[in-house]
Amino acid sequence: MKKAFRNFYKNLFLQSRLFAGLGIAAALYLISFFLPWLSIVPTLFFCTLLLLFFADVWIIYRIEGIKAYRKAPDRLSNGDENDIDIIAESLYTFNIKAGIIDEIPFQFQKRDVWYDITLLPRTPVEYRYGLRPTKRGEYAFGNLMVYATSPIGLVSRRYIFEQTTTLPVYPSFLQMRKYELMAISNRLTEVGIKRVRRIGNSMEFEQIKNYVVGDDYRTINWKATARKGDFMVNSYIEERSQHVYCVIDKSRVMKMPFDGLSLLDYAINASLVLSSVALRKEDKAGLITISDKKGAVIPADNRPGQLNKIMQVLYREKTRYLETDTDLLYHTIRQTLKQRSLVVYFTNIESLPALKRQLPFFKKISMFHLLLVVIFENTELKTMSESPASNVEDIYTKTIAEKFVYEKKLIVKELAGNGIRSILTSPQNLTVDAINSYFEIKAAQKI
């Protein structure tokens, strides 16, 4: 009995309408002090308010009138909007105004999560909201609380539903699925993926098929045409089973944040998508992570579980705070890669002296493999360099920003002068630019 009363007291909340009624009653009592003929009015008003209060409490507590639960995915995608659904149903015979609080993980640092909905009798209502995590790891959800208010609106009752669960945040698999679906439906151009003209034909013959408008007339098979009595053409496919390695620098230079995510997380998300695209092109995808120590190494393969293996490794990767050992990177690549491969190296080179230290090892790698160095563009500095200057301080700031932006361009030029391909891209365009470069390399048959 004592426990039941404690639960009743803890879950009963007084509404502003009740306090407004008490304020009006107090004002009427004050007025009746000066106008004695009104003395009965405040008493009647207060008694009516008291009766409504007890009636409201009885109505809202007479049954367990609310059912609710949270429907969430098995895992969350880092850097993407993840849909979380709340399904609530009222067992009362009248409309209920409900406020919902979902105890979301502390990593989001939100203290104003309140959703207002109206529940009709015996009609489930689904409310959807989105969460965008910016770090990989485990995110713990708490309870789901619903505050139910009757049409009288003097009190509300809190219902607490135990919905505690912990969800892992993986690299951006939603982005990966988006690109996969667009590739299947030939809609990659909508997100900036270019249609690359193939230079010549690869040596892998696929089949002889009927000529359709748009086929290259140079591929007409005249012998088959003579036998069939209709134009037949040779069909070729891109070379398969080529090795594509994503190499991720996880040193301190990748700790820099952009739009909530670190550069390491952008590189991880892009690597996952690029590996997925390579596997869909029937190439073999592999992964290497490096800093001052050798990290994870996954040999290139195209078996069904390869992408999941890459995702599990990327899920656990964290930034280290020392500089990358490029000599170690070179020896790791030489030991792991047994044939000529495309090596996509995600890093962040900020200055020419930093490039000079790494360039000898880049040259050695490019002697055996096709090296593609992906460098991040500092969009904040670029915006600063393009903004107009209004005073002397702005002029100094703009000049320094222009110097750093120009130095990034010099880094790209220096790499090109040494025969090394590179991409200078902003974090938000990283995935698209990496896929475009992969397609261009495939089309040019340079692997």
UniProtKB/TrEMBL annotation:
It holds the Pfam family DUF58. Keywords: Membrane, Transmembrane, Transmembrane helix. Residues 208-348 form the DUF58 domain. It comes from the Bacteria. The keyword Transmembrane applies. InterPro entries: DUF58 (IPR002881), vWFA_dom_sf (IPR036465). The chain crosses the membrane at residues 12-31, 37-61. This is Uncharacterized protein (DUF58 family).
